[in-house]
Design goal:
Elements: E1 5-11, H1 15-26, E2 29-30, E3 34-36, E4 41-47, E5 52-58, H2 66-71, E6 76-84, H3 87-96, E7 108-109, E8 115-119, E9 128-133
Parallel strand pairs: 1-5, 6-9
Antiparallel strand pairs: 1-6, 2-4, 3-4, 4-5, 7-8, 8-9
This protein binds (S)-Methylmalonyl-Coenzyme A and cobalt (II) ion (CO).
(S)-Methylmalonyl-Coenzyme A binds at residues 9, 36, 39, 41, 43, 54, 56, 64-65, 67-68, 78-79, 81, 102, 110-111, 116, 118, 121, 126, 128, 130.
């Protein structure tokens, strides 16, 4: 059921600035900034050979990362994203096992044009988990 690590996300007040050091110091390939109003964030990706780092900054009112940045003014690791083959089947199994799906439980289209869901950090050892249908 659990697939590849799609990305590790870092929340920051300035995603472009945060990504730049990865380009300059690590020679990583850095994407353009993309605004995702439905998710309340702007994303910038650094692509690594085996995964990605997703830099997210708040977008609009009521961004889901606003409180996190109030608590972590310098930014911090925000979530990890695992790939799954069938997001609905995975969601249903996770719920049956007692995990809480965030929001209304209906997948949204994520940064890669694929369905995503988030799982409560309290059910995953304090780590916010995103699942993405590969
Ligand atoms: C574009 C897309 C993509 O990749 O495709 C994305 O990633 S969009 C990425 C942004 N979207 C999301 O994050 C959507 C899902 N996130 C949410 O619904 C929310 O951020 C929650 C995870 C429910 C947190 O809500 P909120 O920030 O309002 O905080 P809260 O005070 O209610 O938090 C409840 C408890 O969870 C903890 N908590 C909050 N955010 C956390 C995080 N990122 N990692 C670990 N723990 C976290 C708080 O410290 C608190 O613990 P205590 O009770 O112990 O103090
Ligand atoms: Co993400």
């Amino acid at each position: 059921m659990l697939g590849r690590l799609n990305h590790v996300a870092i929340a920051t007040k300035d995603a472009i600035k945060a990504a730049k050091i990865y380009g300059a110091a690590f020679g990583a390939q850095i994407s353009e900034a993309v605004a995702l109003p439905e998710h309340g964030v702007t994303t910038v990706f650094a692509t690594l050979p085996n995964t990605k780092i997703e830099f997210i900054e708040p977008l609009g009112e009521g961004s889901p990362i606003a409180k996190f940045l109030e608590r972590n003014a310098d930014g911090g690791i925000h979530h990890i994203c695992y790939e799954v083959v069938d997001i609905i089947a995975s969601r249903d199994t996770l719920v049956k096992e007692g995990a809480r799906v965030l929001g209304d439980g209906v997948p949204k289209i994520g940064a890669h044009g694929k369905p995503v869901l988030f799982l409560h950090p309290k059910d995953f050892s304090g780590a916010l988990v995103e699942i993405e249908q590969a």
